[in-house]
Write a structure and sequence with these properties.
The complex is a heterodimer of chains A (227) and B (563).
Chain A: H1 3-12, E1 16-17, H2 22-51, H3 53-56, E2 60-62, E3 68-71, H4 108-125, E4 147-148, H5 150-164, H6 168-177, E5 179-180, E6 189-191, H7 192-202, H8 220-226
Helix pairs in contact in A: 5-6
Chain B: H1 2-25, H2 34-48, E1 55-56, H3 58-82, H4 98-109, H5 119-122, H6 125-155, H7 169-195, E2 205-208, E3 217-220, H8 225-234, H9 255-280, H10 283-309, H11 333-346, H12 361-373, H13 382-401, E4 407-408, E5 411-412, H14 415-440, H15 443-446, H16 452-467, H17 482-511, H18 528-560
Helix pairs in contact in B: 1-9, 2-7, 3-4, 3-6, 4-17, 6-7, 6-8, 6-9, 6-17, 7-8, 7-9, 8-9, 9-10, 9-11, 10-11, 10-12, 11-12, 12-16, 12-18, 13-14, 13-17, 13-18, 14-16, 14-17, 16-17, 16-18
The chains are: A mainly alpha (227), B mainly alpha (563).
Chain lengths: 227, 563
């Protein structure tokens, strides 16, 4: 131990605080709560909202007329044949009630649910069960996973094309446009809502207006003749 | 694979300079950056009425911590119960019931962030920021402060009698928060907003679903989410804005966001190895500790990654063959979910990007074991403190093995020290196993959602997570009941304060003792042999404590499924 260090330690130990007072603790708490719990979120949130207005407001998706139809980060429930379907959701695709299934692999309910989903998909897409990609029969962690695999989208092309009375190549081209994570990170996935919105924008299924510009009216006979 | 490389590279490349910076930020020596930060620090000291230059003994330091935390728990408890009457509540969320609010307050005040509620639906924006974000900053800072106090006292060689104190708690806290945590969190928050994490004080959007045959309205909850997620990831906190945490696309939207959030899990715990090496001057010791931690970490990660690449046993022949995607997000896949799962349980963070309840049995067991060990990098500050605890035990065992009176860094380890060290280590299996046994003995209180062996694992996981101050869960568990809330409150408190304050006390006691000069028989604590011994002690203590429970839970489940 050299003299310098001794002097430095002695200097540090000049004032020995004898007790920890309640007053200091509580005043410190209030000061920090204001700085960390109010000022910090306010500054970062304001700055983030100003720099990235779209992202900060929930990445909303609009249709061709500008109406908000959802968020590209939240899946939706699709039941009609004209739409691509997403992954099973334990939350009914509601971001207010996000949840995974939390079923263990040893839980018989998991097999029952997956069996029912697999049968329904096999019937709807007219395929055998062993052709279904695994993401279509597994519930996501959040319950609002907006993506399916490109294979899962491919599986549904024939049915959607038929229901809308358009050819499969057109649908496949739209799938390519709805691909995300095609860069250096992650692996490519299809955003189901964006895909379905682009289908609606180009080939509306609107039954009420029955616009003459609709490329192909969706009726059973129309789809039959397409085959 | 690119994602994994990016994550490891960020931690390794940014962790080193961050460690050097933390060492400077916590130093009591004057530095060039002082002028910049004094603008914020001086008013904090003045408003709190503290003299940051004064020095506290370990007792005063510990008392200052406890008093601050009593205040924080009461404040947060009050805010949660009264949020319905308070501002910043655009979605009109009512107050929490008393037991959930108490559990939530204690859970966040112990750096655990175990959640028995769903944030987007049950907390107002005020609760999420003023109560929760505040705690998410103050608790990791406390861990870091205590670690630095221990390092100053235990690791820096000084003659007996010259060390009067361990440091000043308010000084260490303020420096950590203002110079390290706040700038880091602000940068990460902005990066996450750019990727799509909401930053807004508006109420939730209500949107009609696109398919007109589905007559449902979907809500898209917003909030100052990014500011919270940033410190949630950086501060080994883990409590997310939305119920299923970073699996939710709004909380973790893109592969890039996932890279940033995953790297944030370990960057400060890793940087602290470097910071303590610089503060204490014991580089070989800290390198040895880092090597043990890295070994544990790589073993755990490879087990979880390979487990989740296997198919889910429940789904065999219901689809094309594939990895276990149940409870996982497609944009991450199984590898990045497994990496996150193993890191979040090693570092005592507890945030998740996939549901651990639906992991295959071996993956679920590994993340459970990570929490039993809890010193593989570990929580900020407390990870290394926990490692020191094992180091003390190993020094005791090792000294006896070579036939010397037990000593640590030349100071004699005597009955008083060893009694407290043993208590701090043994109380863990006692609390976790004792409360688990009590819970499964009351089937109505247990609330397990999965049958059989997995149900037991759910209960074990909940208590292990509470004691490790981790916060992740096998979330199918019905845990928002008075029994679970109160049993976890006890576990959280014991698991936080005993393993953190006992090493501080031991450091204080040892500092007052005379140093014996190192001789030929002295155990070299920075040698690979001693590090091996310490690793062995960690493995043996944990297996002795928990192997029987693991056999009854995940191992039995795995065996019945054929692997």
């Amino acid at each position: 131990m050299n003299v310098d260090m001794k002097r430095q330690i002695a200097a540090n130990d000049d004032v020995l605080q004898a007790k920890a007072s309640w007053g200091n603790a509580l005043r410190f708490m209030v000061v920090m709560a204001v700085l960390l719990g109010l000022i910090y979120p306010l500054v970062t949130t304001t700055l983030g909202g100003w720099l990235f207005p779209e992202q900060a407001q929930g990445s909303l998706v609009r249709d061709a007329s500008g109406r908000v139809v959802g968020s590209s980060l939240v899946s939706q429930t699709f039941v009609s044949d004209e739409y691509f379907i997403g992954r099973p959701s334990a939350a009914g695709n509601d971001a207010g009630g996000v949840s995974g299934s939390n079923l263990a692999s040893s839980n018989v309910s998991l097999r029952e649910r997956a069996q029912a989903d697999a049968n329904a998909i096999a019937q709807r897409e007219n395929v055998s069960v062993d052709q279904i990609p695994v993401d279509l029969i597994t519930a996501s962690g959040s319950g609002i996973d907006p993506h399916i695999s490109p294979e899962a989208a491919e599986l549904q092309v024939a049915r959607v094309a038929q229901a809308r009375g358009i050819d499969e190549a057109t649908v496949t081209a739209l799938i390519d446009q709805a691909l995300e994570n095609t860069g250096w990170l992650g692996s490519p996935v299809v955003n189901v809502l964006r895909l379905n919105v682009s289908l609606d924008d180009r080939f509306p299924v609107s039954s009420t207006t029955a616009a003459p510009l609709t490329p192909a009216p969706v009726t059973p006979t129309a789809s039959d003749t397409m085959e | 694979m690119n994602d994994m490389i990016a994550i490891y590279a960020i931690v390794a490349l940014l962790g080193v300079p961050l460690g050097i910076y933390i060492a400077r930020a916590l130093s009591t020596q004057p530095s060039r950056i002082d002028t910049l930060f004094r603008v914020i620090e001086t008013p904090i000291y003045r408003l709190a009425g503290v003299n940051s230059q004064s020095v506290m003994t370990w007792q005063v330091y510990a008392l200052a911590i406890l008093k601050l935390h009593v205040g924080l728990i009461l404040l947060a408890w009050l805010v949660f119960m009264c949020q319905g009457l308070l501002p910043l509540n655009p979605d009109g969320i009512p107050g929490m019931k008393w037991d959930t609010a108490l559990h939530t307050a204690v859970s966040f005040a112990t750096n655990t962030n175990q959640q028995h509620y769903s944030g987007q639906a049950q907390l107002s924006h005020l609760s999420q920021t003023f109560a929760i974000v505040t705690l998410q900053f103050l608790t990791p800072a406390t861990g870091l402060a205590v670690l630095v106090a221990i390092a100053r006292t235990l690791l820096v060689a000084r003659p007996a009698g010259t060390v009067k104190g361990v440091g000043n708690y308010y000084h260490d806290m303020t420096r950590t928060l203002v110079r390290v945590m706040l700038p880091l969190a602000a940068v990460v928050a902005l990066l996450l907003t750019s990727q799509g994490v909401p930053s807004s004080y508006q109420a939730a959007h209500q949107v009609e679903m696109l398919d007109s045959q589905v007559e449902e309205v979907q809500s898209i909850p917003l909030g100052p989410v990014a500011s919270m997620v940033a410190i949630k990831q950086l501060g080994t906190n883990g409590g997310g804005w939305y119920g299923p945490n970073s699996s939710v696309p709004l909380e973790n939207p893109t592969p890039l966001a996932n890279v940033i959030e995953t790297a944030s899990l370990t960057i400060i715990p890793f940087a602290l190895l470097i910071a303590i090496a610089l503060i204490s001057g014991r580089r070989r010791l800290m390198m040895g500790i880092g090597a043990v931690m890295l070994t544990f970490s790589l073993i755990s990660t490879s087990v979880v990654v390979s487990s989740e690449r296997m198919p889910n046993a429940a789904l065999v022949e219901l689809s094309q063959p594939g990895a276990n995607l149940e409870g996982k997000e497609l944009r991450f896949g199984t590898d990045l979910s497994a990496l996150w799962g193993s890191w979040t349980t090693q570092t005592s963070n507890g945030s998740v990007n996939a549901m651990h309840d639906s992991f295959n049995p071996m993956g679920g067991m590994m993340v459970l074991m990570d929490m039993f060990v809890n010193v593989t990098f570990g929580g900020i500050g407390v990870g290394l403190i926990g490692f020191f605890l094992y180091l003390m035990l190993a020094a005791f065992v090792g000294s006896l093995m070579v036939g010397r009176a037990p000593e640590l860094f030349g100071k004699p380890l005597e009955t008083r020290e060893m009694r407290w060290i043993s208590l701090a280590i043994l109380v863990q299996p006692l609390v976790i196993l004792g409360l688990s046994a009590l819970t499964v003995a009351m089937p109505n209180a247990a609330g397990t959602s999965n049958p059989g062996f997995h149900g037991l694992t759910q209960v074990l996981y909940e208590f292990a997570s509470a004691f490790a101050n981790n916060g992740s869960g096998f979330e199918g568990l019905g845990d928002d009941t008075p029994w679970w809330n109160l049993a976890c409150v006890i576990t959280l408190m014991v698991g936080r304060f005993l393993p953190m304050l006992v090493p501080l006390a031991v450091a204080g006691w040892l500092a007052a003792k005379r140093t014996a000069p190192a001789g030929r028989g002295t155990l070299p604590m920075d040698s690979p042999a001693f590090m091996g011994l310490t690793a062995g002690v960690i493995v043996i203590v944990n297996l002795l404590g928990f192997l029987p429970a693991l056999v009854l839970g995940p191992i039995a489940e795995a065996v019945t499924q054929g692997f």
